[in-house]
Amino acid sequence: MATTMTPAQAWQKLLEGNQRFVEGTSNHPNQDAPRRSSLVNQQNPFAIIFGCADSRLAAEIIFDLGLGDAFVVRTAGQVIDDAVLGSLEYGVDVLKVPLIVILGHDSCGAVTAAKDTVDTGEMPKGFLRDLVERITPSVLAARRAGFEDINDMVVEHTKQTAERLLDSSRSISAAVADGRTAVLGVAYRLAEGRAEVVSGADTLGR
C-alpha cells in the first residue's frame, strides 16, 4: 500500500526532520522492534533520497527518519548510471513514492576531483575516471555561469543531476508531469546540518 502523502507533504516531513536534526532535538522515529516487525512483508517509503555516498551525508540521520521511511540510493557525487535509474524508477513506479530528493553537499570530493581534472587536464585512473567524466559537464556549466567556488559547483551539479534524471527516465518525467511525484535538488551544508532546496520547487504542487 503506497503512502497517501503528496509531494509537498513529503517534503514538509523531511524539512521538519531536518530542522530537528539542526537543532539537536532529533526524535529517532521508527527505529524500534515493533516498527521492524511491521515492515517484514511490505515497505511504504514516502521519499526517495538519491545522494552522495559521502560518510557525512547519512540521509536517515540528517532528516531524522527511521526504518521504512526513505528509499535511499547513493553514489559518489550522486552520479547517475543505469542501476541508479532502475532503482529510482522502482521507487516511483512500484513503490509509488511521491518525492525524489537529489542530495548534494558542500566540499564534495567527487566534484572537487572533476574540478581538478578540468584545471589540470589530468584524468584520474580506474573507475574514478568514470565519475569525473559524468560530473565534468556540471563543473563546466558552473564556470559558464561565473562560479569558481567548489560549493557553487556542487549546487550546479545537483541541479544538473535533477535535470538529467528527468531527461533520462520517461517514467519519472511522466510521474512529475502528472503530479504523482516531484524531483527536488537539495544542497546540504555540512557545518550547519541544513538541507536547502536549490531546484525543482515548482514541481511540488500543493
From TrEMBL:
Listed InterPro entries = Carbonic_anhydrase, Carbonic_anhydrase_CS, Carbonic_anhydrase_sf
Q: What is its EC number?
A: 4.2.1.1
Classification via Gene3D superfamilies: Carbonic anhydrase
Q: Which UniProt keywords apply?
A: Lyase, Zinc
Write down a Pfam family by its short name: Pro_CA
Which reaction(s) does the protein catalyse, per the Swiss-Prot or TrEMBL entry?
hydrogencarbonate + H(+) = CO2 + H2O
Q: Tell me which family the UniProt entry assigns to this protein.
A: Belongs to the beta-class carbonic anhydrase family.
User: What is its biological role?
Assistant: Catalyzes the reversible hydration of carbon dioxide to form bicarbonate.
Q: What is this protein called?
A: carbonic anhydrase
Q: Which organism encodes this protein?
A: Arthrobacter hankyongi
